[in-house]
Every structure is written in C-alpha cells, then in structure tokens.
Amino acid sequence: MADVISPESPFKEEVQQYLKESGAKEKSEEILGPFSDLANQIAEALWNAVLPGSPGSSLSWELLLLTAVTAIGFWFFRKGRGAKGVDGRERRSSLLEYVLPKAIYTHQSARVDIGLYLLDKAMMPIWLLLFLGSVAPFVEKNTIGAMQSLFGDSPAVTPTIAWQLVYGLVTILMADMIFYWTHYMMHKTEIGWAIHKVHHSAEVLTPLTRPREHFIAGPIWAFGPAIGVTLSAAIFAWVFNGGITRISVYNVGIFSMLYALNGNFRHYHVSFRYPRWLEYWLQSPGMHHTHHSYLEKHWDSNLGLVTSVWDRMMGTLYIADKYEETPWGLAPQDQAQYTTLADNLTTPFKEIYRIVRGKPKTTLATPQSARNSGSE
C-alpha cells in the first residue's frame, strides 16, 4: 500500500498518462475552471489530498482526536448524559465507556464496518480517476461554454473576500441540494433502497460507519454532489475569468474539514445536537441518529447533509427530543439478512435481481417509503 500512495507509484504514472491522453491535461487559452486547472497542474497534489487518512478525511488521527476531545467535553458539561448504548437508548457510564464503549466497538456490526471501509478505500482511486480525469472537466468545460454562449465574455469580476464567500455558500447549497435528492431517491426507490440498506444495516454507529456502503453505491454518492460542486465552480470561473483554483481548494478544504468532524458525530454514539430552533435550518449530527433508527416513526427522516430546508419542503424533517431513543439498524425482520460482511455484499445483488425479474415485493426488498404506507 505504501508503494501505491507514494509519489513514485507506477499506478500514479498511469493515471497521469491517462489524464494526458484523455485531453484533461492539455494547455489552453480558454477560461479554465478549477477542476480542469487542477487536472492540468496539480493532479498529484489532489491525489494525495483526498486519500482516506488525509487531514481532510474524517478518519484522520487529528479529527478522530478532536472527536474524542469534544466527547470528553460533553461528558463533563452534560454530567455523563448524551451517549447511547447498543440499543440506541441513553446510558450513563464512566468517562472511558462514554467515549469508547466496549460493547459498541466489539459489536459484529462494527467489525463489518471495517471490511466495508477497506473496500471503500480500495475503490476510491477509481472514483477519483473518473471524476478528476473525465466527469469534472467535461461538466466544467461545457458549463463555461454555455455561460459564454448565453452571456458573452466573462465580466472578470475581482474575487474579493465577499465574492469568495458567495462562491463558497453557493457551492455548499448546490452540493447539499444534490445530496438530498440523491439520498431521497435511495430511500424512495426499490433498487436505491436495496443498495442503501447496507448503510442502514449498521446496528451501532462509529466513525467507520460513514463509509459503510455497498461498493456499487460509490459512484452514486461521488458523482451527484461532485457535479454540483463542479457546476458552481464553472459558473464562478466564468464570473472571475478563471484563476480560482486556489479559492476552490480553500473553499472545498474548509467544507471538507467541517463535514469530516460533522460526519464523525453523525456516526458516533454520542449525540451532538444544535438548539431546536437552529435544527429547523441546519442538520445537526444528532439528527442523523434519528435517520438511522429502525422505529417506524423515524423512517425516511432527516435526509439532508447541511441544511434542513429540503427536509422541511418535502415533509421528511423530524426533530427528536434531546435524548430520544433511536435503536439503529434495519427492522428486526430484515436485519438478519444484513448481519455479516458477506450478507452486506451479496444481498443487494439478490434484491436487484428480484426487482429486475419483476417478482412480488417482500418486506426485505420494499423501500421504507412503501413500508410506511403498509405495503408488503
């Protein structure tokens, strides 16, 4: 593995050659958005930056340490309240058990998390290659071309701090919107739910639960929000007449760090909630505890990533009581089908095959939305 991620890696040389042959690294006098510019100039730096374990990853030791320190602070200020056990109910415990409970981290579900994480890590270079080498530059180039066709030459606005903040805000909102609708479709369609069930089969929440996904879900989650980020970058590349690579890296870096910490607490047994009034606008990590609950009243709730706006519009917002019970996983009759690593890798294919063949729906295959309405 060390050879693969080192600067001398032959695989990286192949990636560089692919980027060159695909045209992603060609120099041009046209306006370049940040993703095309990055592909041209700093593909190697980006490659290193987005690998799991980098400072921007939720699983970097810095953010894991910050998560633990924050949890310790909660233990002191809440007088031991706010941590949940394997059953999703609040429990009081010693400081060590509060931060690192043995029952959770030795649970079979947590062991399955490790296997799915390693597979996700192995697949990441493929999604990165497809995104950086082809999808992002393609979307970016055509978006900039469309802006020029519709509005003419770039106004060449000076990227002041105020404009940079606008760019960052637009990027976050676009990524959040696409994430919500991707997540919505994963819950509301049979095939989407068959794939996404792997994530919801987690019976305990740990930082490793965030990448707990079936490997065929990788491109779905990668391309949707990434295209939103690329669209925003392309629009502002036209507004600023290019030259926004550094701004883009800075914006994405800040967002990645905030999301990484937020992501750890979204999938952590210690609840991190915002004031109730704020949760009507922003998704707190603790609201994701409710999303993972198998109680019927919690199904299909809190699908957003950053804001609660889309959940409010679509009626999927659920503001739970401060320490409300949230037993995690699938409904008991389904959980047995998603217990082991092998189950989580093979069952989605069985379900998709059943759906394509048009066989009658079963409780196992029916999306949460259908089960909400009483379907079999």
List keywords for this structure.
single chain; mainly alpha; 18 helices; disordered C terminus
Strand content: under 5%
Question: How many strand elements?
Answer: 0
- Average pLDDT metric: 80
Structural class: mainly alpha
| Count of DSSP H/I helices | 18
Order of helices and strands: HHHHHHHHHHHHHHHHHH
Structure characterization notes:
By secondary structure, the chain is an all-alpha fold. It has a domain at 78-120 and 151-314. It is built from 18 helices and no strands. The protein has helices at 2-5, 10-21, 34-41, 43-50, 61-77, 95-99, 102-105, 108-151, 161-188, 190-200, 218-240, 245-266, 276-279, 285-291, 309-314, 332-335, 341-357, 368-372. The radius of gyration is 22 Å and the shape is globular.
Secondary structure blueprint with pairings:
Elements: H1 2-5, H2 10-21, H3 34-41, H4 43-50, H5 61-77, H6 95-99, H7 102-105, H8 108-151, H9 161-188, H10 190-200, H11 218-240, H12 245-266, H13 276-279, H14 285-291, H15 309-314, H16 332-335, H17 341-357, H18 368-372
